[in-house]
Amino acid sequence: MPREIVTVQLGQCGNQMGSVYWQRLCAEHGINKEGILEEWATEGGDRKDVFFYQADDEHYIPRAILVDLEPRVINGILTSSYANLYNPENIFVSKDGGGAGNNWAQGYSAGERIYEEVMEMVDREAEGSDSLEGFMLMHSIAGGTGSGLGSFLLERLNDKFPKKLIQTYSVFPNAQDSEVVVQPYNAMLTLKRLTDHADSVVVLDNGALTRISADRLHVQTPSFDQTNQLASTVIAASTQTLRYPGYMNNDLVGIIASLIPTPRCHFLMTSYTPFTSDQIDKAKPIRRTTVLDVMRRLLQPKNCLVSTSPSKTACYISILNIIQGDVDPTDVHQSLLRIRERQLANFIPWGPASIQVALTRRSPYVQTNHRVSGLMLANHTSVASLFKRMIDQFDRLRRRNAFVEQYKKEKIFENGLEEFDDARATAEELLKEYKACESADYITYVRPLPLPHPPDVPVANASTPFPPIPPHAPRTHTHRALASPTPRRDRTPGARYTMRAAARRKVYLDVRSARRDGVYL
After folding, report:
1. pTM of the model
2. In the chain, how many domains are there?
3. Residue 105 belongs to domain spanning
4. Three-class DSSP category at 468
């Protein structure tokens, strides 16, 4: 039975990235621009129905919802050669077409106005699935629509589909070259929602995309099309085991469970090799692609799509390598032994030093110039340096209350700027938890409860370490998860008021220790 995934594309970045992504998926599954399966695409073995469904006329249609508050990008998609690929009922453009003005608060407020129309599309796709597994969200956290509207939809999807997984592909801004002066505000407010409401966040750093473009493509100032090609290559590779299933990691929950042992540390870094000319124009050629070469390159910082600051204490929490091509499992085992002998990967002291490897077929419909390619999904503590950079940029603006007047005009800020302070506190807690992961006593680490507490929720103390769950908690901006009639799983953000972090962590560690798939060092 298929485990369908619905893709939601938000804003300029999300829709541009999604457009290239769907073009790539069509090529890998032998589907033409009209959504018709090519006559020569007869090899089978792939699962198209995870990301596509068939219309009455046998056309393949992406399980995608395109949303933007201004029409330029979506109009470009609708006038492209792939215009007939999408379901027109799943495309939403705001009637006023004014966008969100690169303002998180405007995007969030717009979400309240368009909620019914967008959720009708989501419900239609969910009800049309036999066994919906979850949602993929593509967006940027720097602008207005992707950050503000993305935050709003994350909260609502979390409430409406409490048992479905939510994975985001979030483009983080370039720290050195910012086109939006208020991007530190937008990014910080969005980071809070990504922390509280997403199951997994795949971080795509604009700075790293620019660096890789300069190194691999010889382009010092890459265009949006070139960076979108890089991003779509990585996104498509991360879904390869879902579309060409093997013996393991053939659903989203398997991937997430193997990478995320604790609820909040769910920000994943990616590396990919090789970027070649059959994927991206002007790519630097790579002559040799053995399993060992690919796995060694995946561990090199220059191939990582997140720019982080080096640290002697930084370490891997978990690694999943998705290797594509005709590979002998014996070569994989030998490569893992070589990596261990050379100590190329430093792991957390409180968990297993394991590299999980998933072998998957390459699409028979796309010709490549290399024998083996690989994607690494890694949970690494160095991502904390990205959060530290975001906090520093935020503080420089917040200290002077710069550019806050436009935010005060929206409803969410009408009673003050506490939302800014809550978001910064969440980022600070996340930074501390990733740093705590580097120490051996992390198992006993208990994340402090945020203050002030909602008045109706008891606070843990020495005599009552496990406060009871309020039967009908009112909806507040700090306590949304408990407002849902169906409680979230153990990783629920709202459960921070009702369960000690260490107790919740044990659930994830038990799941991780019980994994039956993968190769361990």
Report:
1. 0.85
2. 1
3. 5-215
4. coil
